[in-house]
Specification:
This protein is an alpha/beta fold and about 250 residues long. Helix content is about 45%, strand content about 15%. The protein contains twelve helices and eight strands.
């Protein structure tokens, strides 16, 4: 298993690739591109658990661990992706400290949590490495909760103070809509909210994370103190490449 929790909690800057196409090919490409982590999106992406299995296998081409964004904060979703070999889980739409505490519990084996124990899943080497995995899992798996609403911002300090929450990760589009500033990522008031989030999160010893609306926002994110940053998506790169190509072709059309 490839674990990065210790580095993340040291607030090292770590850049991730966001894979939402459900493709093992793009995951393998990301794995070979030297990202620090790769996220597989099961909230808005089309993949299922068999797709996820192939994507995690494809990630073996590189050194980046796989983080999986599950569709919702429900216990069965955690154990399915963790048993397949995810090094961490991202949970959308966490708004209260109780919801964050549930996330932590679902991530961990007893007595620290309620994750079901099986000795033969892929994460445990199909049984060959169960003891090592069981001993390491609770302290090594990365727990990421998303801050996407005004209510989550209001409860930010309490959420960040939940033991076992490692990264508080801004979903900028959802958050901007909740704050009634849809897509206005450069609005000074929105930037102040981002600054507040980063400051509170770092003060609790956790890492502040963010999905970048675009690479031009990277310098600001770094300046504000975000260290766990998704810098691109496979779908976005493919779409923008196709648009650039057809734009170049259009001037020759009559």
């Amino acid at each position: 298993m490839k674990f990065i929790r210790e580095r993340v909690l040291k607030q090292e800057f770590m850049a991730g690739a966001w894979c939402n196409l459900g493709s093992p090919i793009t995951v393998e490409m990301a794995a070979r591109a030297d990202f620090d982590w790769i996220l597989i999106d099961q909230e808005h992406g089309p993949g299922d658990n068999m797709t996820l299995l192939h994507q995690i296998q494809a990630a073996e081409a590189g050194s980046a661990p796989i983080i999986v964004r599950i569709a919702w904060n429900e216990m069965p979703r955690f154990k399915r992706v963790l048993d397949l070999g995810a090094a961490g889980v991202m949970v959308p739409y966490v708004q209260t400290p109780q919801e964050a505490a549930d996330v932590v519990s679902f991530m961990r084996y007893p007595p620290e949590g309620v994750r079901g124990v099986a000795s033969t899943p892929r994460a445990a080497g199909f049984g060959h490495d169960f003891s090592e995995y069981f001993d390491a899992a609770n302290r090594s798996l990365l727990t990421v909760v998303q801050i996407e609403t005004a209510r989550a911002v209001k409860n930010l300090e309490a959420i960040a103070s939940v033991p076992g929450v490692d990264v508080l990760f801004v979903g900028p589009l959802d958050l901007s809509i909740s704050l009634q500033k849809p897509g206005r990522f450069k609005d000074p008031d929105f930037i102040e909210v981002l600054k507040h989030i980063s400051s509170v999160v770092k003060s609790t010893g956790k890492a502040a994370g963010m999905f970048l609306p675009g690479l031009p926002e990277l310098p600001l994110a770094v300046e504000l103190g975000f260290t766990f940053v998704a810098v691109c998506t496979d779908g976005g790169i493919v779409t923008s490449g196709m648009k650039d190509s057809i734009t170049a072709v259009n001037k020759y059309r009559h």
